Amino acid sequence: MPPAPAASAVNALMQELPARVLHRDRELIILDKPAGLAVHPGPSGGLSLEAALDALRFEMRTAPSLAHRLDRDTSGCLVLARRRSALRRLNALFAAGEIEKTYWAVVVGSPKAASGVVELALRKLNRKDGWKMVADPSGQSAVTRWRLLGQGDGMSWLECKPQTGRTHQVRVHCAALGCPILGDPVYGAPGKEPHRSDRPLHLHARAVSIPYVERAPPVTAAAPVPAHMRAALVACGWRDEGGRS
Fold first, then answer.
1. For this structure, is 153 an active site residue?
2. Is 241 among the domain residues?
3. Which of 26, 47, 70, 155 has the least CB density, counted as fewest CB within 10 Å?
4. What's the pLDDT score for residue 245?
């Protein structure tokens, strides 16, 4: 059994989480997950979001549940269900592809067009040194719509809207465009990055739109740009939260 995270680390995270809530109602919460935080504890243990979800109970008797997941190093909008009925509803919406997720990625190089669609089936490849997702026609269907938002200093700023929810989908699809995400240790190209190669992953779950109630406006939220992505986005033309979005 992996070691439990230190109580001090869990307490610090519990103090931080309420201020990172982007939306809350009686059914769901949309949280701005920080980069570097796993949503589930890994095989080696360590701090995870699950260990601190009790901080997001608010007036409810139980802690919320994860309706989906983000990679450890991906920041931004993460959806939580506050009731079992809400979890069932959200699971159905995610499975049907009715929840719109918008990611911002800073990638190395430049795509050959201003927008497009990547349709590239993926499967998990297990290796002695770990696992990764690889393109395979016999794998699970994976589709990502993307468009170019800006460029500069050898980098491009892409908006990606995954139409399916495969593991590492946006990361693999950006690499398939010939433009791996800046700081990606698995699918990236550290030797080709225009700056240092030890940067954190520059992938941010920027926004989410959830048609939770039929014939009612969707529940929406947008997560602010994390500090580690600001310089690269500015180089690509981003002008702060009051500017281009």
1. no
2. no
3. 26
4. 45
